[in-house]
Specification:
Strand order of the largest sheet: 3-5-1-12-9-10-11
Mean pLDDT: 97
Largest sheet: 7 strands, mixed
Strand content: 15-25%
Number of strands: 28
């Protein structure tokens, strides 16, 4: 396989292991003496806890412990922190929502943890949880974002008046207002970005052990499915247990999907660690699927009003937005950042706005906490902008593609600083747009619409241009180790949750060192393996970890030259390295040579014999000074049955600029998955809370619709490589892009299909019921 270089569609090397059932996920791990934990959760959306009686539960056979908030408080455990210290527009700090692993005096959403039961078997633990008696005083609840800030609504937290936990803004308000005042035309639109239940294939799980003899005063080991072990370790140690970080080891095995939801610290992480220390034996908790609906962070849930100001020639002047963002009952780890710093920075998108002003109001409700979900704020912003542009084009009678093309930042302007202060290093947006339109046969659509009309169907075509701003920490680490079994271990600080990291990192390492891919083993997820790691999120992995691997492999080569000089008895300056023939060090001008794997083995054997020798192992930390701006154009073509409201996607085309595509096969696969999730949000996924009781009515897959194979068309993805100028690989993040461009493309197509019937706007999800009602309402209005 070493003959394959970068930019080749190499099949994922991890897939055979996973497809043959050789993956090792958190729930697969079983330790000697392991006990089982079950969380008792609140059945009420808002209530005071008057009394908890655990006596009957504790007396049941096999029960090892029943723990409440009182037990955690007595051991001094702290709260699960929100790490974002946001300031309001007036300079005051955001409201606090103290969240502990178990609720003590009040529960604030259905599913809020109340007690933790540990028993010899999971059945015994469930039986004991059912035996706990809790007296509640039920309080009024608020679950509807649209009315939660109105005076007189139930208060989720007394300290957050009218349920507003922050009121934040960004951009140049004065300049935006000035441009709106002189605009020839203003388009205004209110859009709903519906709440998403993340629904990863693998549910969350956690297994903790505590070794009193390991470390200074005992040490925890937590096995759990995260998107980065180091963040969970740091928050557990610093904020909750108030212990040094080296007292915790977090191990993340294989992970079956994350989408942002597995980034965060959860109550169950705390509970299994606490119980393992208390009971002196391993404790395991595994989420059931309905439990995941009530306990995993959820995504999106915004209501936004946007205004677009244009001059007489259809040039964009300014953009104003006001976004009400649902935070749920508690502020999760990164929650306030998602609609503010993450979401607003891409509001200018690929267009030459002179000014943008964004106001974001964080709203508390008696619902599951909301945090990052694939795209994390950027899909919400892109959706608003692309829906606004379509509305403006319709109002002005300008072709939708032409209006976008007219306002795109040209490549000659790069590097370009947007109205939101983002510096785009590269991009040819018009070229990408035109490529997508050509591939979708935009010009031939009228004939397809006419054919559908003859069959009694409505057909529409929609486009959406997106721009993503990737995220993540300012550094990343990697290590390369030559193992005794002859394999080369590449230790990384990111975490694959299904993206294909093992293949991408092995390809890159093979390219730099000449080692066959089959001799490379990627090691991830163990917080003891590296001092720190940035984890996976914000589509950062390849451009961040890739730079760390480049730095580390360069160090390996330099150490190899020193080692080769020792082995070949030549001056270091005379040693040359070539990636050909398995990676070789050669004395210049001679046939004296040694391959890198042999050299590493020889040097290791010398050290084992007590001889002085240079090893090839290396570890480096790379600085990540700039993020990337992947962008692209989605074109969706839909058909609607006006009698039933049923929508089918007939054609779907994507043209993406991911910079240099290290593995086009994996990149396209990422887009396919993202489009599927975007289509699900646009057409199917409806999260429903009962307004009176606060119960989650869509709490299973019987009531919450995920996209299935027959909901999706063939998805054609063209990759246009416009290299990124801010990293040596020239890559741009690809992991979230599909979920960013697809919702507005689908809704724009649907509105286009129904425009002649008088439908000008639809909110997501555009279920058959919603589409049928929109058509019926338009007929009545006519």
């Amino acid at each position: 396989m070493a003959k394959f270089g970068l930019s080749q569609p190499v099949r994922r090397i991890e897939d055979p292991r996973l497809l043959l059932g050789r993956g090792r996920f958190t729930d697969d791990i079983a330790l000697p003496g392991q006990a089982y934990g079950v969380v008792l959760r609140s059945p009420h959306a808002h209530a005071r806890i008057l009394r908890i009686d655990t006596a009957a539960a504790s007396a049941l056979p096999g029960v090892l412990g029943v723990f409440t908030a009182k037990d955690l408080r007595e051991e001094g455990l702290g709260e699960l922190p929100c790490t974002v210290p946001l300031k309001n527009t007036d300079g005051t700090p955001r409201a606090e929502t103290p969240r502990y692993a178990l609720a003590e005096d009040r529960v604030r959403h259905v599913g809020d943890p109340v007690a933790f039961v540990v028993a010899e078997t999971s059945k015994a633990a469930r039986d004991a949880a059912e035996a706990i008696e809790v007296d509640y005083e039920i309080l009024p609840a608020i679950t509807d974002l649209a009315v939660a800030t109105e005076p007189g609504q139930p208060q989720v937290w007394d300290a957050a008046k009218n349920n507003v936990c922050f009121d934040w803004d960004a951009g140049d308000k004065a300049k935006a207002d000035e441009l709106f005042a002189k605009a020839a035309h203003v388009t205004r639109l209110r859009v709903v970005n519906n709440r998403i239940i993340v629904s990863s294939m693998e549910a969350r799980a956690a297994l903790a052990t505590y070794d009193e003899k390991d470390g200074n005063g005992g040490r925890f080991t937590l096995y759990t499915n995260t998107q980065g072990s180091w963040l969970v370790r740091n928050l557990l140690a610093q904020a909750v247990f108030k212990l040094p970080e080296d007292r915790f080891r977090v191990i993340t095995p294989d992970v079956g999907g994350g989408f942002g939801m597995k980034l965060f610290l959860y109550p169950e992480h705390v509970l299994v660690c606490f119980a393992a220390r208390r009971l002196k034996r391993p404790v395991k908790w595994t989420s059931e699927r309905t439990e995941a609906f009530l306990a995993d962070t959820q995504g999106r849930d915004n209501i936004t009003v946007g205004e677009l100001a244009l001059d007489k020639d259809g040039r964009f002047l300014a953009l104003r937005t006001q976004n009400h963002a649902n935070m749920g009952a508690y502020l999760s780890t990164f929650a306030p950042f998602i609609p503010t710093g993450a979401g607003t920075k891409v509001l200018a998108s690929v267009y030459g706005f002179q000014a943008v002003h964004a106001r974001v109001i964080g709203v508390l409700t008696n619902t599951v906490p909301v945090d990052a979900y694939r795209g994390a704020g950027r899909p919400e912003s892109n959706y608003l902008v692309e829906r606004l542009i379509d509305a403006a084009a319709r109002e002005l009678g300008i072709d939708r593609a032409e209006l976008r093309r007219r306002n795109m930042v040209p490549p000659s302007a790069m590097p370009y600083v947007t109205a939101m202060g983002q510096r785009y290093d590269s991009g040819d947006f018009r070229r990408v747009l035109d490529a997508a339109l050509a591939r979708a046969d935009w010009a031939g659509f009228p004939a397809r619409r006419a054919e559908a009309a003859r069959r009694g169907k409505r057909r529409g075509i929609g486009l959406a241009y997106y721009l993503e701003a990737t995220g993540g920490g300012p550094t990343e680490r990697a290590a390369v180790r030559f193992a005794e079994d002859g394999m080369v271990e590449v230790v990384v600080g990111t975490q694959s949750t299904g993206q294909g990291h093992e293949t991408a990192y092995a390809m890159l390492t093979s390219h730099e060192l000449g080692i066959p891919i089959e001799k490379i083993r990627v090691v991830q997820g163990d917080s003891d393996s590296l001092p720190s790691g940035g984890g996976t999120g914000g589509a950062r992995s390849l451009y961040s970890e890739g730079q760390a691997i480049l730095a580390t492999t360069a160090s390996v080569v330099e150490k190899g030259k020193q080692a080769a000089s020792e082995h070949l008895e030549a001056a270091v300056a005379d040693i040359e390295f070539s990636t050909a023939d398995g990676g070789r060090f050669t004395v210049a001008g001679t046939d004296r040579t040694v391959d890198i794997l042999t050299l590493a083995r020889v040097q290791r054997e010398k050290v084992a014999r007590g001889e002085a020798a240079t090893l090839l192992d290396a570890a480096e930390e790379a600085k990540i000074p700039a993020h990337t701006f992947p962008n692209g154009c989605h074109v969706a073509e839909v058909e609607v049955d006006p009698d039933t409201g049923q929508v089918s996607i007939q054609r779907y085309v994507v043209a993406d600029d991911f910079g240099h595509a290290l593995n086009p096969l994996i990149a396209r696969g990422q887009v396919h998955g993202g489009v599927a999730q975007g289509v699900g949000q646009a057409m199917l996924e409806r999260t429903v809370y009962d307004p009176d009781s606060g119960q989650l009515l869509s709490a299973s897959f019987m009531d919450y619709a995920l996209p299935r194979a027959d909901d999706l068309p063939d998805i054609h993805v063209d990759l246009l490589e416009i290299p990124c100028e801010t990293n040596p690989l020239g890559v741009k993040g690809a992991g979230e892009a599909g979920a960013v461009g697809s919702p507005p493309a689908v809704i724009n197509a649907l509105v286009d299909a129904l425009a002649e019937d008088g439908v000008q706007h639809l909110d997501m999800p555009a279920t058959p019921e919603a589409v049928w009602k929109a058509l019926a309402g338009a007929k009545r209005a006519a």
